[in-house]
Recover the amino acids of this structure.
């Protein structure tokens, strides 16, 4: 085995197989990739980066990094109602890694990509590989398509609309606690359930597509339920009231909060759940019930859109009617 | 001024103005951007990253970083014959920077982006901003369009084709020497000409578009004339012979090599020139002359495509008929 892999070797050995399913990738041999768009469709494009030590622990399994990267990016497509088409990948690889470390990492990481891209029916179509004296940094650009004029947006929520959220909320924030060695009293299966939600986002692509024409505004829950709903409110020029007791919790999150109710604000404020939060007129509630049934995915009504924003921000949280404080760090500060 | 800028502040203050010209950017307020493609066109997508201390000196002016990033990415579009449509940008910003440093950097960097994007008639449509404990790392994804079926490729060169290159070669590699304090005997205007070529790539977009239907294979000169021609040869299953004395040099490069002929291999092997190297049948030579005249851009015939690849690699370099050794580091090794 070579002690230093050439960039060409890296591409042909590890990445070209991920591009084999898509003619427009041109075998990763060209300067750029080609993407055709069916008539009547608009392309949807998003890009997100994750940094070792910031967005995932340095020692995390490379397969999980692959799942996180794809999940985070496809979640943005889900929030627009788009169907994924393909992705590009930029790796900044630590120059301190030995050839052997690099090879092992690439082997497991690309196996993870292969698994996740197959699950979503997409292929790698391009990218770049650079060395960095800093931490491992991965940037993905995801391309999708949506019927022209039907993309979901953050703007569009109207006074009187109801607020819905998919799945369960707070698992990733509680999973981060578990990863840090906290919540020792929680049962082992609950701990692993929370960790799994933190490490492997499951982008709600099927839901996003079905919400076209049903939801008035949509965002994915990446920075936290309240922060992301705040963005919907800001884009729509409205404010919202959330009933904290209606926010759906997994059995694991319920157990953690049952042990320590002080964790509830963390669950509501924490990010990385990659559920969809959306608004729609009350008249659409039956349709939303049908979608939940079709997808076998709980869709909970957790609040409503009210008038213009007050002094206490775009989202007020109530707990059985009383004001309830939720930290929204993700919304406020560049970290 | 705030000591810590929020991500939202960064977007609204520094980046949203760069997105104002493109409706599909959705004001950078949504989870993804929308891009419509005119009928009959294919989308062309590329992504490239640059890292402080690797691809540019840590202390370099932020405006130059903006120009380099846009230039490097649009050069890939040029090599496919594409017209640029829009771009996305991911910034990994050093967490060690103070709020004031961050603000000043963003101010100058985004002013540079504004200037360069206006020069190419494109807008920012999306991106991500993350913190890193490592060096400043910037990733751009550039989108372009080309007539369906007319994209230029690296494959397609045929035995008997001539090899052409645009502009002048080796300036960036020599500029890197100047940046490192070498070449002290060179005249000041030559030194600054070489530095300018290193710092500000000028992607050959107009040439790329005109080469559709004229060139049989095209690449941009990013890793070095010989390395990039080697990729054309590998993709096309041919080999090439280059006459070193025909490779066009700028007055500054000619002066440097005149002082020290040992610099000629460096000029031929070094990267970052962002010219286009292409092949075409001899019958197209008059058409190529016309294109050179229309664009006021020299297009030099520097060699020819010969049979299959020999033991000494896909590209042989001759100097007045005798074998001439050129280092091709960029082609071989991940750095």
């Amino acid at each position: 085995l070579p002690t230093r892999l050439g960039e060409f070797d890296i591409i042909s050995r590890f990445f070209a197989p991920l591009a084999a399913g898509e003619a427009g990738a041109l075998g990763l041999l060209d300067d750029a990739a080609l993407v055709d768009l069916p008539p009547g469709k608009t392309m949807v494009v998003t890009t997100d980066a994750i940094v070792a030590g910031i967005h995932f622990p340095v020692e995390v399994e490379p397969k999980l990094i692959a799942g996180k990267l794809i999940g985070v990016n496809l979640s943005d497509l889900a929030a627009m109602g788009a169907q994924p088409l393909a992705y590009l990948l930029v790796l900044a690889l630590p120059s301190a890694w030995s050839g052997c470390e690099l090879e092992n990492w690439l082997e497991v990481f690309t196996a993870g990509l292969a698994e996740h891209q197959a699950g979503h029916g997409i292929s790698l179509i391009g990218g770049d590989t650079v060395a960095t004296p800093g931490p491992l940094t991965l940037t993905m650009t995801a391309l999708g398509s949506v019927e022209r004029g039907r993309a979901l947006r953050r703007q569009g929520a109207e006074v009187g609309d109801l607020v819905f959220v998919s799945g369960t909320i707070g698992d990733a924030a509680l999973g981060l606690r578990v990863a840090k060695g906290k919540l020792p009293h929680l049962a082992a299966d609950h701990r692993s359930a929370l960790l799994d939600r933190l490490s492997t986002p499951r982008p709600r692509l099927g839901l996003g597509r079905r919400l076209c024409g049903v939801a008035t505004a949509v965002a994915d829950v990446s920075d936290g339920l309240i922060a992301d709903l705040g963005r919907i409110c800001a884009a729509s020029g409205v404010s919202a009231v959330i009933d904290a007791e209606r926010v759906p919790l997994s059995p694991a999150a319920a157990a953690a909060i049952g042990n320590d109710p002080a964790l509830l604000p963390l669950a509501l404020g924490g990010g990385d759940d990659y559920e969809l939060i959306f608004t729609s007129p009350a008249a659409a509630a039956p349709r939303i019930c049908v979608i939940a049934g079709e997808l076998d995915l709980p869709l909970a009504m957790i609040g409503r859109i009210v008038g213009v924003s007050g002094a206490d921000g775009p989202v007020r949280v109530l707990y059985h009617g009383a004001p309830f404080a939720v930290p929204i760090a993700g919304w406020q500060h560049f970290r």
